[in-house]
Amino acid sequence: MMPPGFLRGPEWKYGSTPAILGDLLRRASHETPLNQLVWLDSCGRATVSTYADLVADSEYILLGLQMSGLVPGDVVLFQLPHHADFIAALWACFLGGFVALPVATPPDYSESSSQLENFCHACGIQPEPYVLTDRKTASLLRSFRTATPKHQNQVILIDDLRNTEGHPLWH
Question: How many CB atoms lie within 10 A of CB 7?
């Protein structure tokens, strides 16, 4: 019997494995349109989506990042507490050639914590990364940025990126 946290899917039966990561997602959305992804929130509630949904969401985010001025190689520091946001943003970074820098979101930016130390360390290693976050976390981050002027990163709201229209360029 496998440990509870270990899942194994069916054997790969779709020809050769794609050489480009983005092609893997695109292929999954075309060849397995009924397969579902299940996201659990912090309370254990499930949200169901498909690979096609993930491609569409990632492309909106990618286009929004590109319209925000990001170019391949730019660092995007994640402060994304929701799993679905995290995965869609990660794929957007893969598709756009951006460097994803996931850092656990602190419960509070005004009190010392290991997550806050990690966030500050990441900002120190990568000067002025773009910070991708949601609206709620951005308001907490805003007060932190006011108190610590050395952390003046460009904050991008994932909620706003989902409202962009057009066609993103895959890297």
Answer: 7
Cα–Cα distance list, 11 to 21, 33, 49, 158 (Å): 18, 17, 22, 34
pTM of the full structure: 0.80
DSSP 18: P
Q: Per-residue pLDDT tens, the chain, 171 aa: give them.
A: 555 555 566 676 666 776 677 788 888 888 887 888 888 888 889 989 998 899 999 999 999 999 999 999 999 999 999 989 999 999 999 999 999 999 998 888 888 889 888 888 887 777 678 999 999 998 888 777 654 545 456 889 999 998 888 778 787
- Say how many C-beta atoms besides its own lie within 10 A of residue 146's C-beta: 10
Question: At residue 79, what are phi and psi to the nearest 5 degrees?
Answer: -125, 70
The tally of CA atoms less than 13 A away on the side-chain side of residue 147 is 9
